[in-house]
Design a protein that fits this description.
- The structure holds 2 protein chains of 2 kinds.
- By secondary structure, chain A is mostly helical.
- Chain A is 57% helix and 5% strand.
- Chain A has 9 helices and 2 strands; from the N terminus they run βαααααααααβ.
- In chain A, strands 1-2 form a two-stranded antiparallel ribbon.
- The longest helix of chain A is centred in the C-terminal third of the chain and has 24 residues, at 170-193.
- By secondary structure, chain B is mainly alpha-helical.
- Chain B has a domain at 46-175: AhpD-like, CATH 1.20.1290.
- Chain B has helices at residues 3-8, 15-22, 25-39, 49-62, 66-73, 80-89, 117-123, 125-139, 146-154, 159-187.
- In chain B, 49% of the residues are buried.
- Classes of the chains: A mainly alpha, B mainly alpha.
- At the A-B interface, helix 3, helix 8 and helix 9 of A face helix 2, helix 3, helix 8, helix 9 and helix 10 of B.
Chain lengths: 201, 189
């Protein structure tokens, strides 16, 4: 028996980048909430993720999901040294903007705006794209994220120089590399396993 | 040394080794566990070691990363048809179309890759379907749609194997960029 994708139709398709809340509709069948094995439950790391079709779909391969999630959390949430949380989220939002992941960009633009208290600059990135003029420091972080996201990767010594010139030490530069690289992982899953729609009010 | 250290040339006790171990130890540990879960899992299921490594060789090749490609090539079986596909399929990304509307002015055209008939026979239907999907994910992921997934299912991939394949492409997209970025930083340290 050949498996089938899930047809999604009749929903509103977001046609712009936004900080609004979006939902995500899967194209493949997630594990049903009442069918999750102990291993699959543990792989969610956060029990609240049971509500998410995305995470229950990824739970089909629990070892990879758990390792993915713990990598993600350390890159973005570990408060020790490095780049401030707001700017890790900026790198995630810029990467998502360039790849075209409207769902990922919405989540991480919200985080970037909240932590930086610069919602108008975040909105400028969403509206104008990764060429938007934000300020010297944010421009350097966005440019580094863009260079890491392009295929082939175009990140070079000039990007390190630019990041150092706006005050990033090597701990912070490693965070830029990790955050932009991680969103090249996340964007590809979100873009290819389902699609966004506006969240129900 | 983990795989990222090996591929990026980060020596034990070096400045970047210290940053990876002391500042982001959990990310370091679980990037390695991600690699192990994809390439040396307890149970390969229906997605064989040779298939996983063949896809990795294709992805690294599409990124122009010869050393990373060589790392995965040892367990990929015959790489001649993979090399032929890399030569035919390499381009620059990200491109693709947005949902119709204001973003349409940013739509960027680019190739949709189809595996050549002679390589299709050598790769077999599963890997041929996978390579066409993988090319899209590497270079123009915003063009993804359910039809592309159905092509994989029709070629004999199960839903769970498609999830693992998607994770493998996405993880390699991460690993290749971390390695590339850390190599540049190491050279400037």
């Amino acid at each position: 028996m050949t498996d089938k994708t899930i047809p999604q139709s009749g929903h509103v398709v977001p046609a712009v980048f936004t900080r609004d809340m979006l939902d995500w509709l899967p194209w493949l069948e997630p594990v049903a909430a009442d069918q999750m094995s102990e291993r699959q439950l543990a792989s969610l790391v956060d029990a609240a993720r049971m509500k998410s079709d995305y995470f229950r779909l990824l739970a089909r391969d629990p070892d990879v999901l758990e390792a993915r999630t713990r990598t993600d959390k350390d890159i973005f949430y570990n408060p020790d040294a490095g780049l401030p949380r707001a700017e890790r989220e900026l790198a995630a939002a810029a990467t998502s903007r360039l790849n075209g992941c409207i769902y990922c960009a919405s989540v991480h633009a919200r985080f970037a705006a909240t932590y930086s208290k610069r919602p108008s600059d975040v909105d400028k990135l969403l509206a104008e794209g990764t060429g938007a003029d934000l300020d010297k420091r944010w421009n350097a972080i966005v440019a580094g994220s863009v260079a890491l996201t392009e295929t082939p990767v175009s990140f070079g010594p000039q990007h390190i120089d630019a990041l150092r010139a706006v005050g990033l030490d090597d701990d912070a530069i490693v965070d830029v590399i990790n955050a932009a690289s991680f969103f090249n992982w996340a964007n590809r899953l979100m873009l290819s396993l389902g699609e966004p729609t506006p969240a129900k009010a | 040394m983990d795989v990222i250290d090996t591929l990026a040339g980060i020596a034990a006790g070096s400045h970047l080794d210290s940053i990876r171990r002391t500042r982001r130890p959990t990310a370091r540990e679980h990037a390695q566990k991600s690699y192990e879960s994809l390439f040396a899992p307890a149970d390969f299921g229906g997605f064989s070691a040779a298939e996983r490594h063949a896809v990795a060789v294709f992805i690294a090749g599409l990124h122009g990363q010869d050393a990373i490609k060589a790392f995965y090539a040892g367990k990929a079986g015959n790489t001649a048809p993979i090399d032929a596909e890399i030569a035919a399929a390499t381009t620059r990304g990200p491109y693709g179309a947005f949902p119709k509307g204001p973003l349409s002015s940013e739509d960027t055209a680019g190739p949709i890759h189809r595996v050549a008939d002679k390589n299709r026979a050598a790769l077999g239907p599963r890997l041929a379907a996978a390579f066409e999907h993988v090319h899209m994910l590497v270079f123009h992921p915003r063009d993804a749609d359910a039809r592309s997934l159905q092509s994989l299912l029709d070629a004999g991939w199960t839903t769970t194997e498609v999830v693992t394949l998607s994770q493998l492409v996405a993880f390699l997209s991460f690993q290749i960029r971390v390695v590339a970025g850390l190599k540049v930083l190491a050279a400037k340290s």
